[in-house]
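Pinned message: reference record for small monomeric GTPase
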Amino acid sequence: MAARGASVQRPNGASQGKICQFKLVLLGESAVGKSSLVLRFVKGQFHEYQESTIGAAFLTQTVCLDDTTVKFEIWDTAGQERYHSLAPMYYRGAQAAIIVYDITNQDTFNRAKSWVKELQRQANPNIVIALSGNKADLANKRMVEYEEAQAYAEENGLLFMETSAKTAMNVNDIFLAIAKKLPKTDPGARGPQQGAGTVQVNESQGGQKSGCCGGK
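Predicted structure (tokens):
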């Protein structure tokens, strides 16, 4: 899927900048908090008991940079092993991925490394990959050291942040970092699609502003 750019006009005729649309996929073991991260990012909400995703869930959210509005088409995939065979269907054509592990579970970090290898081997060669060490609010139960994950991310050219869907720590920031790293020009992009003249920003809560370009 190509990023699509369009110039948006304000009522007074001043240009607001481009709209770029990107497909982003979340990968990781079951129960690491993928759906909770997306829910926190898109709606500013957190549910203590989040039902497991079946197959994949689709949501959208926008991030506003200085002169560009980045619209993420987010695919939140199921972490159960029985759904692994479906994963390529979701990461195929994705321009970005967040691979999530639970800092209190070493096995989920090892599995995250396997996802990195799979994306490097099979996904878009220019894909932007971020590694999210989730459940940072449970640091007292930590099994994966920050330095270990950071070193691994640096070796593999990944963005890396520890996050907490519960407290919202670094949730917006990791999506913002991805938005900044994605290319904003695409020579092969098709022109603006019908209806691409306006930017729709999802209503959000929990400190995430609903007005476009009003903050992270």
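Pinned by admin. Summary line: The longest strand covers residues 15-28.
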